[in-house]
Amino acid sequence: MREISAAQAMEQAQRGDAVILDVRPQVVRHQGSVPGAVVVEPGELTGKLRANPSVRPDAEVAVVALNAQADEIESRLSRLGFTKLARVAGGFRALRDR
């Protein structure tokens, strides 16, 4: 998965060019939330995305995930038909500190 900066992710999301997808487990999200992000538990990825019309497979998706889970999340999103995926470099902390 390619990487984009936190600033790029936020700018794209604010312009409506991308969706920020926060796939961190709830136990980790106590650190805070990403404004405007679609929040999905890693284990509920398939069902929640199919039920959420704002996250289309043809959309640019900036993914915020734990490093240990990022490759698996990318693989699952790819199997769901998502092709325009980017990992937010530095994850939630980079977005928070931006």
UniProtKB/TrEMBL annotation:
PROSITE patterns: RHODANESE_3 (PS50206). Coiled coil: none annotated. It comes from the Bacteria. Residues 14-96 form the Rhodanese domain. Pfam families: Rhodanese. This is Rhodanese domain-containing protein. It comes from Gordonia araii NBRC 100433.
